[in-house]
Amino acid sequence: MKKIFLLLIGFTLPLCIVHAQKTTQTENIFLITVDGLRWQELFRGADSLFVDDTGMIEKQGALLEEYWDTDPARRRELLMPFTWSTLAKEGQIHGNRYRGNRVDLRNTMLFSYPGYNEILTGRADDARINSNDKNNNPNVTLLEYLQRMPAYQGKVLAFGSWDVFPYIVNTDRSGIPVNAGFDMAQGPDLSEAERVINRLQKEIRGPWAGVRLDPFTHHYAMEAIKKQQPRAVLIAYGEPDDWAHDNRYDEYLHSIRQFDAYLKDLWEYIQSTPGYKDKTTMIVTTDHGRGVDKATWTGHGTAIPRSREIWIAAIGPDSPALGALENDAQLYAAMIPRTIFQLLGLSYPGEGADSAIDALLP
């Protein structure tokens, strides 16, 4: 194995350790996050406590035809058809606590910035990452480590619905382009689709000040991916968490179903594009969970300890098709960076990062 260094302003930064002989097929990584989507809905669909509560939906009975069935397996298929028809059959999903399979956060803040820091760096940093303020992340993310490597430089992109992502990725230091919040597509060679999306984003304002609606994030990402063919992509969708904070269980479910459709769109594009087909792993997760009853489901954080409970899904050429795991296992969000680097045939250089997820590796 050979260690590579980057000379930067008079000092050296270790980038990675490259395995002498790459044994994986993964050449590209799509890391997808969705804010605040509970594992309860992922594995059992619409919650019987909430689905017809008049305090949480616009009209009583409005959700039953679309999302309700007495069989939890059928309910989850109604809510997330791609996830349960394709991802679960060709990939793997971790975190079904109903079956004893667990995924948790290591940070104790249990809200968004600390969660994304953990996902992107491989460790919690409660001492410094303890608010959602727009402060540049002092930690180097897996995206930045890749950006420093010649093989990935200029081929790392990030997109997010939340306007804090440029700070989480620390675009000032990393140089990674981040389209987030109400950013628009920039440049002299905008596609017609990007021009339309820009115009619509000016005209359509969602209900939140710092979070745009997910369709803008998704379609900005898709257009950029088609044009630039990046090797590492972060796409961070946001609607489920904000609808939950607003106590709108109907909109929460609708946004989850739309998120599932975006996963389908992404995976079908990946598998229909020669540079990505059978060379790309897609990892999907969430930054935190949330409360489990009517009094707490709108929130998360230290006061709601069960918001540490999350999930991880993945599909790609190196990861065995294990479906929804039912073994008694414990994983953490912090395992994602080292797993991604090992899938790429690299060793993760971040100090203190968690171990890799063995089930995702060949």
Instruction: Give the count of structural domains.
Output: 1
CATH H-tier superfamily? Alkaline Phosphatase, subunit A
Helix/strand class: alpha/beta
Helix content: 25-40%
CATH fold-level topology: Alkaline Phosphatase, subunit A
CATH class: Alpha Beta
Question: pLDDT below 50 for ≥5 consecutive residues: which ranges?
Answer: 1-14
What distance separates the N and C termini?
19 Å
Shape: globular
> Largest sheet, described in full?
8 strands, mixed
Strand order of the largest sheet: 7-6-8-3-9-10-4-11
Order of helices and strands: EEEHHHHEEHHEHHEHHEHHEEEEHE
Describe this protein's structure.
It contains 13 helices and 13 strands. Helix 3 packs across helix 4 (81-90), helix 9 (192-203) runs antiparallel to helix 10 (214-228) and helix 11 packs antiparallel against helix 12. The strands form three sheets. Strands 7-6-8-3-9-10-4-11 form an eight-stranded mixed β-sheet, with helices on both faces. A three-stranded antiparallel β-sheet has the order 1-2-13. With 362 residues, the chain is α/β, with parallel strands linked by helices. The protein is 33% helix and 16% strand. The protein is globular and about 55 Å long. The chain has one domain: Alkaline Phosphatase, subunit A. One of its GO terms (molecular function) is catalytic activity.
